[in-house]
Design a protein that fits this description.
The protein is α/β, with parallel strands linked by helices and 106 residues long. 41% of the residues lie in helices and 24% in strands. The chain is built from four helices and four strands, in the order ββαβαβαα. A four-stranded mixed beta sheet has the order 1-2-3-4. β3, α2 and β4 form a beta-alpha-beta unit. α3 runs antiparallel to α4. The longest helix has 12 residues. The chain starts with a strand and ends with a helix. The mean pLDDT is 83.
Length: 106
Amino acid sequence: MSPLQFGQPQNCIQVDFALEAKCHAIASGLGVKVLSRLISRLRHRQFGMLVTTSFLTDQAYGELVEDGHPIVVCAGGDIAQLLIEKANLASASQASRIAPVRAALQ
């Protein structure tokens, strides 16, 4: 659990959140067990963030949405997309390097 500050130091608010990070293979999705662990650590008025190099399984994501838990998910596809955009690798000279990544995201 870590406090996150919003606003200027002299007039800010702090929001507590829980972070769970998992490094898994691209084809190995995270299931309900990992999500349940994060949910169980959340207290009143807290949110959670799940960062993974893979993805949430359909069942885990469905339960997250259906139950309305305040959890932000940043999955492998999101991370790859951000890296592509931020590194500006879409130039013609780099296109062959990012083609497999783009194909995997679709």
